[in-house]
Specification:
The protein has eight helices and two strands, in the order H-H-H-H-H-E-H-H-E-H. With about 200 residues, the protein is mainly α. It has a two-stranded antiparallel sheet with strand order 1-2. The two termini are about 40 Å apart.
Length: about 200
């Protein structure tokens, strides 16, 4: 997956897992490129954080009190501020809404928290396409939106940029269902010689 796609997936995982320590640290390890993530990981372990925003607040506050006014307290305060920033952003994601509303919310997360990387533009393009699903579908739960987004990001991560205009260049590899209604100059279907395709009709 591209850095932007992975960052967005990890952000949604934080929301899904209720701010588990591992999901937060996995994201920070990707997003923080100044060496802070490894220090924060050690601090969160020392504090005994398990998950949930209340647990983060309580345990980091206790850790800060134990460290007095030393460097440990400063690093703990920075981690606390970062976690609060993530919590404030993720709590605004609606449980249900239009495809466009949820796509715009995720695009905002991408711009705010994803690493500055060329792949971010492709992530925003992927979200824009999901927003267009309002034309054929009504409101959607965030869980369904997130599952669809995950599949879309997986596909976008292995398609070359020059193949974004589908069926105009390159070689198409996919299932029979993916190839419906498409035309090809040459077609190779795996399994015909071995007679494993098409599958025999059920009796």
């Amino acid at each position: 997956a591209t850095p932007a796609a992975r960052a967005l997936s990890l952000l949604l995982k934080i929301r899904e897992e209720g701010f588990s320590r591992r999901s937060v640290m996995d994201f920070l390890a990707l997003a923080q490129r100044d060496g802070q993530a490894s220090r924060w990981d050690r601090l969160s372990r020392e504090a005994g954080v398990v998950g949930g925003i209340a647990d983060w607040r309580d345990r980091l506050d206790r850790l800060g009190a134990g460290h007095g006014s030393g460097a440990g307290q400063g690093h703990g305060r920075e981690l606390r501020l970062r976690v609060e920033e993530l919590h404030a952003a993720l709590r605004t994601l609606p449980a249900e809404g239009s495809w466009l509303m949820l796509a715009d919310a995720c695009a905002d997360l991408l711009r705010r928290f994803a690493p500055d990387d060329p792949s971010r533009e492709r992530g925003e393009s992927c979200l824009s396409k999901l927003g267009a699903l309002d034309d054929i579908s009504g409101s959607v739960t965030f869980e369904r939106f997130a599952a669809t987004l995950s599949q879309a990001l997986d596909r976008a991560s292995y398609r070359a940029a020059e193949e974004e205009s589908f069926q105009r260049s390159g070689i198409f590899v996919g299932t029979v269902m993916d190839a419906r209604l498409l035309s090809f100059h040459v077609t190779a279907i795996m399994g015909l010689v071995e007679r494993s395709f098409p599958a025999p009709a059920r009796q």
